[in-house]
Design a protein that fits this description.
Two copies of one chain form a homodimer.
Chain A (H helix, E strand, L loop, with lengths): L3 E5 L3 H13 L4 E5 L12 H5 L14 H6 L2 E4 L4 E5 L4 E4 L3 E4 L2 E4 L3 E3 L12 E2 L4 H12 L3 E5 L3 H12 L3 E5 L12 H13 L3 E3 L4 E7 L2 E7 L2 E4 L2 E4 L3 E3 L2 H5 L10 E2 L11 E3 L4 E4 L6 E2 L4 H15 L13 E5 L2 E7 L2 H7 L4 E8 L10 E8 L6 E8 L4 H13 L4 H5 L15 H16 L1
Parallel strand pairs in A: 1-2, 1-7, 2-3, 7-19, 9-16, 10-11, 10-16, 11-12, 18-20
Antiparallel strand pairs in A: 4-5, 5-6, 8-17, 13-14, 14-15, 20-21, 22-23, 23-26, 24-25, 25-26
């Protein structure tokens, strides 16, 4: 009899898992439960449709429903799983009753942190997540004159830019002194703030939300520690929290972030139960600090690993060094591992190498600034983190590289002596990463 | 008494050396001899001025003459060094007589290989090198209706695209079956050839030059193994050969390529004589095969190392894994170390991982193809080479990374499990390098 594997969740992790199972065990019966109407679209693209960069939500659809039927994956849409019984090895499914599994993958994703203030039930509060809701909200956005984005999280940063591009009077409120403070450094974000101001965005930092204020059940204004801001729309972009309700109720072990604890095979504390994606927490490769809410790329890769193992294969998920990147205002920001702010918060000592480089030959049209900041462990000078801000070109590829450099223990010496492509239209004589490493070494030599 | 260091050559290697000396020994007397009117411009930009992408030759000037005066570097312009006497530690300088040195750096650069056919003395043959000559030739190009580029070398590839952009009927002749055959693979160059055809370029492969044919001392046509091609202009882009005349006459050891042999400190066989740049040969990091004619970035870095050591410091030049990249037609090509063609020629066995990936989310405007081909050592699966062709974004940064990956012995497993940034506007869910590695492993698993 084919093995029956149940996957809870139809996002990147859940679908990665379903594919992973089928890859190692083509005969396995694979059922995916999702509470939504669709799977296989890119939620990460939603802010860019709102911003007008992508012309329609249809573009975000990656595969039709038939693709999963053809792959032998049985997706149950708009179907809620209400409980897991790890002893009986069943899940309780609304409308289906108890469904037996041989193997289970939990990929229940995230929720936005509850803003925890009065007025959360008003019309006009938008939590960006589901593509069908996004298409409805896009009509609301079309008629919106004033909007507030609550918190400069990664999604908040994207939505601020999107609403400003849309010509809406856009406000951003955030309790920290600068945007994306949980991951980026202030000097990296400074040009982003400047470019938002150029777009007419109103920035309210060191500002906490106190209430959503309504009028006839509809949002009228946001009450904040810096005063009232009138707005018809609030994009609530609070940080992501793991959706751990089912796992928690089933007694599966959770970690300090609330994420499901998994081993290096994405296995949970329960027998025959794996987990992947935003519902889990993953230790940082250098510090072991649990991380929660990584990217869709991580979720997909974790899903693949969970599915491979749930399907009877054997694949480890490698430690994460977290390359990241995103457009922000007119810039692209990115990095790997952590920056100065996080290192300082964690009490991790570091030495710095910084360079303001360029993306092409200085004289070639379209040349853009590329600022690179490298953090290295004192003594060994091994790379432990990096942050960048630039005009766009190559930030993502450099972030990928720097995460791998951290994984492989590359030092400032290794990066200072790295070869680089020089071709005027695509690369400058001196690669900014190399110059940053050389500057770091020169600073150390001066101090010595 | 300050140490007197003489540098022969005012290109990237020579100026890198001059700066390297001053960095470790600010009191050193540093004299640079150049036969040209200028130093400190970017010759690599010349094809892009011809192509119209860069508006004028002035843009290529990096620093004025005063910058070198200020730095304490004494540049003798339009001054030829005619001999080196390593026993007497002097150089013979036209107009100056014998000049004593304590330390010498030879950075005499390259010459284009002599095409070795009749008619080489005709007007209308353009060897791209010097910025003042380039400005004069640009006026000739403006009046040119038909041009032939001789050999699809890196410069030839750039000049074909430049002349085609300029609206000139452009022909390319090359003895090999496809362009850039000394370094790139045919599948990488196929889209480039197609884009040249779209630009109206006439491609003549498997074609050797037999003579330049003249009329009243001016070029009228090129006689080739495939017939005559009428043209008023021939860009002679034959391969680079080391300009080793002075070193050779001085009895300094040359290698199999004709390049000056240097140790890992860029020291030649003669006492107190270093060399750097295109005049030298450098062993390939994996194979030890001597390489000659690398990029301006290599020349500059080698010059820095030679200068640092000549100035009394101690710096090794790391083995080269040769990241490279250049626009070609409407594509950007690049890679690191070698591709299949070179590996096969050298008798080096390899396994392949290939992917046709994308530069951004599939649905994001401006998304471009990125083909990645990885060569790994059978058994260990260590990366030994890579080639790419793509729409532009990130080819240079990926080439830099892949060269470093080779240096650090990364395997297909390491690359298959690499994390990557996913953000729709700047990176796809799956990084093409990762997919190529995964495909390579999947192919091996199928064969096993």
């Amino acid at each position: 009899m084919p093995r029956k594997t149940v996957v809870i969740g139809g996002g990147a992790a859940g679908l990665g898992a379903a594919g992973g199972i089928k890859a190692v065990d083509p005969d396995a019966e694979v059922i995916v439960y999702t509470q939504f109407e669709d799977v296989a679209y890119s939620p990460c693209g939603i802010p860019y449709v709102h911003g007008g960069e992508i012309e329609s939500f249809d573009k975000l659809i990656l595969a039709g429903k038939q693709a999963y039927v053809d792959a032998g994956i049985d997706v149950h849409y708009e179907t809620e799983v209400t409980a897991i019984d790890t002893a009986a090895k069943t899940v309780a499914v609304a409308g289906e009753g108890a469904v037996r599994y041989d193997r289970l993958v939990i990929a229940t994703g995230f929720d936005y942190a509850d803003p925890g203030v009065p007025g959360s039930d008003l019309d006009g509060l938008y939590y960006v997540k589901n593509i069908r809701r996004a298409a409805e909200w896009d009509k609301v956005i079309a008629d919106t004159k004033r909007a507030v984005v609550v918190e400069a999280s990664p999604l908040g940063v994207e939505m601020v830019t999107a609403l400003a591009h849309r010509g809406i009077e856009t406000h951003l409120i955030d309790p920290n002194p600068y945007p994306l403070a949980a991951m980026a450094d202030p000097d990296i974000m400074a040009p982003v703030e400047e470019s938002w101001r150029e777009l007419g965005v109103h920035l309210h930092f060191n500002t906490t939300l106190e209430a959503f204020l309504g009028d006839g059940g509809r949002l009228r204004a946001l009450k904040t520690s810096s005063g009232e801001i009138e707005a018809e729309l609030a994009v609530v972009a609070t940080h992501k929290t793991p959706n751990n309700r089912l796992a928690s109720a089933a007694g599966i072990k959770l970690g300090s972030t609330g994420g499901i604890v998994v081993d290096d095979h994405m296995k949970t504390s329960a027998p025959d139960v794996w987990a992947a994606g935003d519902a889990t927490e993953i230790p940082h490769g250098l510090t072991g600090v649990p991380l929660q809410g990584l990217t869709g790329s991580h979720a997909y890769a974790q899903g693949k690993v969970a599915g491979t193992n749930a399907g009877g294969g054997d694949r480890a998920y490698r430690a994460v060094y977290v390359p990241w990147g995103t457009p922000a205002g007119k810039w692209v920001i990115g990095g790997a591992s952590f920056g100065e702010a996080t290192a300082t918060a964690l009490g991790i000592p570091y030495v710095l190498g910084v360079a303001e480089g360029i993306s092409r030959a200085r004289y070639y049209p379209g040349v853009k600034k590329v600022k690179v900041k490298l953090l290295a462990e004192p003594g060994s000078l091994r790379l432990i983190g990096a942050q960048m801000v630039g005009g766009g070109e190559g930030i993502k590829e450099r972030a990928d590289f720097l995460a791998q450099a951290i994984r492989f223990g590359m030092t400032l010496h290794d990066l200072a002596t790295m070869e680089n492509v020089y071709s005027p239209a695509i690369g400058a004589l001196n690669e900014p990463i190399v110059v940053a490493a050389q500057n770091g070494l020169a600073d150390l030599a001066k101090k010595a």
